[in-house]
Amino acid sequence: MKILNLYAGIGGNRKLWGDEHEITAVEYDENIANFYKESYPKDNVIVTDAHEYLRINYENYDFIWSSPPCPSHSKIRQMVGLKKGAEPIYPDMKLYEEIIFLKHHFKGLWLVENVIPYYKPFIEATKLSRHLFWSNFTINEQEFEEVKIRWSNKISDLESYHEIYIADTKLKDKRQLLRNCVFPKLGKYILDEAISEVSGHNIQEASEG
To answer: What's the pTM value of the predicted model, to 2 decimals?
Structure first.
């Protein structure tokens, strides 16, 4: 498949996808994008605004994964951050813009991932692990190991959990980058579900033909 991986970060969701697909990754931060490219040299990495790239290029892909920024929706920021002096901020509505856009314009398979928010989601989603997923394909329930290690203050613990190692790089906010990662096994599971959907659709078309 031709896959578009938006807001790619350091590539937690992509880590176990392998190299059999044609993957384009979009990341706004050039340093993070360079790390991603070193980790996945066969991917086409583009440094630009993922939200705008999606609007212009969505028709060029078979499967789109989008993970828009989550802090403005986060329970942790709302419940803990504000008590520590953080300023209240508006929820970033690009999350819902992308869900609506993909639902009504994209003919391939798509998925938007974000945190479980501090408010009731405006659009119904599938909860899996610590995430909400909006998609146009079925994501079956699956147990994943607990993610308590995510809250460790030790970068080494987070690196071991994701098997992504950034301690010796010049990347900023290393702990936050690792905490923002989608667990690689979860990322693979989601892609496998999408591939299963494609395979099932193709089998059905063949039988009808």
So the answer is: 0.90
